[in-house]
Amino acid sequence: MLDELDGLLLAELQRDSSRTLRELGEVVGLSPSAVQRRIDRYRTSGLITREVAVLDAGLSATAVLTICLVTLRYESDQHHAEVRGRLLAAPEVQQVYAVSGDYDYVVVLATAGMAEYRDAGRRLFQNAPNIQRYTTLVVFDPIKTSTALPVTIG
Amino acid sequence: MLDELDGLLLAELQRDSSRTLRELGEVVGLSPSAVQRRIDRYRTSGLITREVAVLDAGLSATAVLTICLVTLRYESDQHHAEVRGRLLAAPEVQQVYAVSGDYDYVVVLATAGMAEYRDAGRRLFQNAPNIQRYTTLVVFDPIKTSTALPVTIG
DNA sequence: TCTGAAAGTTTTCATCC
DNA sequence: GGATGAAAACTTTCAGA
What we know:
- Two copies of one chain form a homodimer.
- Chain A has 154 residues and is an alpha+beta fold.
- Chain A folds into two domains: 4-45, Arc Repressor Mutant, subunit A; 57-138, Lrp/AsnC effector binding domain/regulation of amino acid metabolism (RAM) domain (Alpha-Beta Plaits).
- Chain A has five helices and five strands, in the order αααββαββαβ.
- Chain A has helices spanning 4-15, 21-28, 32-45, 77-89, 114-126; strands at 48-55, 64-72, 93-100, 105-111, 131-145.
- Chain A has a four-stranded antiparallel beta sheet.
- The longest helix of chain A is centred in the N-terminal third of the chain and has 14 residues, at 32-45.
- The termini of chain A are close together.
- Chains A and B meet through helix 1, strand 1, strand 2, helix 4 and strand 3 of A and helix 1, strand 1, strand 2, helix 4 and strand 3 of B.
């Protein structure tokens, strides 16, 4: 179970994880070793899955982001597994969400350029089985790209 | 300008930034201090915008992710700025993409539960000016949530 | 611009509260 | 659980190539 200090600490870590244990301790009001013990717990429990550097999409110059809204032809587990496997294996695929609503999947692609996007789109959707239809939205401004989640305490 | 070593190093940092300079150096074939100099350059140039901990959406228990596809009523810069300002100010807003295609914005919301989502949706879209229509997709499985971008060398 | 070694911090870990 | 302090590890700095 998580208390308010965990909520605070996790919010800080989702905002900036590059600080030292002492700096984090000052923010949340704990000693460095107390901070460390909590962070260890998040890591071993799998609550923190990874720590990553986030690049500026604008400065990554020619990077093109596209969002594909995908509907499958068939709804069986096998067909879903097949599509997921294909998406996860593709290096261009940045994010995949299984959704309920007007579509089955929302897929964010990050490619080095427009030509690379066309290739990926054809390979993953156009010439692929089980895809009934898909719509592409080209991102011209990635206004906010956080991964922060709310932490429920208690 | 970035060389192949930068491309390698940036890919590694986007995958796992929690490693030491020595470990990273072993992966890319550089000494710890050479790695550090390059990372410093990424940080001061703004290519690396931040370093964050990524939480497991499943273990974050009651966290609900939703994706809203939003169309504005008017296309002027002022109207866009107004909507963006509102979205950026909301703590529930995890990601915002300005897109071209069938919609104007793709917005990812992360809320502590369904009730919180309903509040946020009403506040940000239903009872808000300039929103012509919006569709909500409820995420029932965040299959992949990376932020990795391709790095163009040269 | 890289390497390698010395100096300065941070993290780790055992111990006590 | 949390704090403290010593040891180990890491990062930073700087001389030399």
